[in-house]
From TrEMBL:
Domain GH15-like, chain residue ranges per copy: 236-608
GO MF, one annotated term: hydrolase activity
Sequence ranges assigned to domain Trehalase-like N-terminal in this UniProt record: 2-134
Name of the protein: Glycoside hydrolase family 15 protein
InterPro entries: 6-hairpin_glycosidase_sf, 6hp_glycosidase-like_sf, GH15-like, Trehalase-like_N
Pfam families attached to this UniProt entry: Glyco_hydro_15, TREH_N
Highest taxon of source: Bacteria
Keywords of the record: Hydrolase
Amino acid sequence: MAALIEDFALVGDMRTAALVSRYGSVDWLCLPRFDSPAVFAGLLGADEHGSWRLAPAACVAGRRPAARRRYRGDSLVLEQEWDTPEGSVRVTDFMPPRGRSGSPDGAPCVVRVVDGLSGTVRMRSVLETRFSYGRIVPWVRRESHAGHRRPDRVVAVAGPDSLWLDTEAGTETYGSDLTTYADFTVSAGQRTALTLTWQASHLRPPPRPDAEALLRDTERFWDDWTNRCTYNGPWRGAVMRSLITLKALTYAPTGGIVAAPTTSLPEEIGGVRNWDYRFTWLRDAAITLASLLRTGYHEEARAWREWLLRAVAGDARNLQIMYGVAGERELAESELPWLPGYENSRPVRIGNGAAGQLQLDVYGEVVDALYLGQTSGLAGDDDSHILQMKLMNYLESNWQEPDEGIWEVRGPRRHFTHSKVMTWVAADRTVRRLSRLPGEPPVARWRALRDEVHREVCAKGYDADRNTFTQSYGSRELDASLLLIPQVGFLPPHDPRVVGTVEAVQRELNDDGFVRRYPVEQDGPPGERAVSGDGLPGGEGVFLACSFWLAHDLALIGRRAEGRRLFERLLALRNDVGLLAEEWDTGHGRQVGNFPQAFSHVPLIDAALRLG
Ligand SMILES: OC[C@H]1O[C@H](O[C@H]2O[C@H](CO)[C@@H](O)[C@H](O)[C@H]2O)[C@H](O)[C@@H](O)[C@@H]1O
């Protein structure tokens, strides 16, 4: 059985990422890119779907977790320690940022350094490589180098992939039952390392990684990066960990940012809400960019803006709400029937059908991010100005269409209030932007659009009897996206309609003090599961982003102490290494959904900035 979601920590190289459990097992890793097929998919099944376990031999056999674990300072270098009757050891896991000095020629590599802390401990590595999301058992062979005193290399090959296991003197490797074992002992003060390097199978073998040099270089990389953070408020540790996570979700060659490095971690254990998040959503990436800008990370923000300009180049009618990390458009959704799914949550999906949806809010989020870039002095504004005008022209003729909205509902399109509010945001930021430019730009046209949208939202998206905005025009349902109304400046925080909406969401979408994104039907007809308003059967956890938005809003409407209390409770939901999935299951007290999730860590940062 896979570990709990919160049992995992993240390591990555800004092109892909691995999940390492507290049991010492790498259970998720896609190579060479975030969206490549997984070589370890044990997360969505069992060890036999691919995993790499490394721990004291007795703990591997008995699945004993590490006694302690932490990231080394502000870095993505993970340390886990086991205590055994024989002694104690530390395993340090990381992925070196690619293409830096010492890194094997840009080849992705997982490094596992083992330090003896006390006594003499027998260690075991159990490697089950299963290419193509757990389906393909590779050919495994040993490569020895005549005349070299270094141990043999073990290489697993299938189709386009090869994976090279390197060990150091004193480690014995052998194969059995489609598994590669490596046994060694480590005594106090000794250190040894195992590395696993991916290489396209038609290329020459990758050089042996130098684990020591890579560790030094990786630490230096994270030191330099985290020293650039400008946030020094009361929650620096949580904010820094969130920023490091966002950086780890960035695909360095292009600046694209994945929503999460996983697919199909369920929003309900045993349920069907299992989606692939290894893509760049304009919405998620736009809000990420804003958080990065607010905390001093202009370089990343600029890289994403350039990614955006390339990805959406062309006719605005062809804009997608999400792309591959290099701007790819074909993200067809399919199922992997051979994977049982995380705790039997089926189906496991790859690709994402939401790519073909109309989500009008995305225009507002993108224009807002461009505006923030423009007003924060990001260099190279010209193209972003052209893009902004293209988006506005499209929105002007299409904003009155119904859409699938921020939550990507799979039911019929609706006039979502939040989508219209974000149309207002796009027009508002355009008016503000143009008013700053010299000459006589056509501000009047966008001002008229802005005011028309505002009037319509207040007339059709607001329920005067209940003093709350509603999920869609004319509906009685609430929606947590309405919490963004004061944050984007659509109405001032103290407007009675805003206060009424915040209070209504807090009251009616409440679950244990946290917030659901919308009402989800729990009961179906006898023998059947109900289909919810979002077009899907079953339920889901409370949505962490929405819960952070509530904490943020409470501060905006003058209930700061209450906001801080909620914020602190939310921080307590992070796992022991500071990571959050998309949702929280209040019934079982555990994280659910893809992990770690940018859309949770971004509102954490924004709320910290507001509440601090
Ligand atoms: O709820 C159904 C939808 O769930 C996913 O979308 C969610 O994740 C996105 C990425 O973080 C986020 O931008 C969106 O607001 C969320 O609702 C899934 O990707 C969709 O395919 C699915 O329809």
